[in-house]
Amino acid sequence: MSRYVRELRDRALAARLALAGRVHQYPEIQALRRFLSAFAVDCVFDVGANRGQYATMLRKDAGFAGTILSFEPNPDIFAELGRRAASDAKWHVFNMALSDFDGTAIFNIMAADQFSSLKTPSGEQDAIFAERNKVTRTVDMQCRRLESLLPELKTAHGFARPFLKMDTQGHDLSVCEGAALALNEMLGVQTELGVRPIYEGGTSYRAMIDWLGERGFVPSAFFANNKGHFPLLVEMDGIFVNQARLPRDR
Q1: How many domains does the chain have?
Q2: Phi then psi for 127, rounded to 5 degrees?
Q3: How many other C-beta atoms lie within 10 A of the C-beta of residue 143?
Q4: Considering the domain boundaries, does residue 5 fall inside one?
Q5: What are 158-208's pLDDT values in tens digits?
Q6: pLDDT confidence of residue 250
Q7: Does the residue 182 lie in any domain?
Q8: Considering Cα of 98, then 103, then 105, then 110, what sign does the dihedral take?
Q9: What does the DSSP assignment read for 12-28?
Q10: In whole angstroms, what is the distance from residue 81 CA to residue 47 CA?
């Protein structure tokens, strides 16, 4: 693709997002479009899928045509996720949580469902979150380790170059720990980074970056994951590339 065609495509994307009130997503979409294409990713693990917003963005905005495996524990919204995926033969959904153990756990459903988590809300969270990020009820939820689940999914869906995206409301590190050596198979990782964690025991952005770095995943891109809470950033997303999967002659 020529530089001029790419520039026109990018401007058209920016204009479309701006008209839809989604201009803050432009850096994420650009980073994903480039990463997924450059590394020939053939499967995205969409962990913490909610209603399928991320998967829909991958299809409509990032141009991803490969397999999507969406995991969403919240039974209240899983049916909607399933309806969204039903017409897409390469989009598969699972009503479970990924964690660092195989078994069941208490899942907290919050007043605003996008905050639902295996973690409990922090007592020190900002007032803007207090009403939305509070537990309204709990359910028992099946949890699986990615280490034990990955071989099953590879056999079922035949992918070879996966990418791991996590948006699990404070639980991303547990997902990675549950992957163990299977994490090495990921071309990259996208994780939510809490600058001011809003869950008890939530991993700070510095600790998460260091943990990934110790396992060979280095930053590829950072961007705010929402419209922001000026003047203090609450959280952002980071895309990390697996150094072991980089071309040797780069």
Answers
A1: 1
A2: -60, -30
A3: 21
A4: no
A5: 999 999 999 888 889 999 999 999 999 999 999 999 888 778 778 899 999
A6: 52
A7: yes
A8: positive
A9: HHHHHHHHTT-GGGHHH
A10: 13
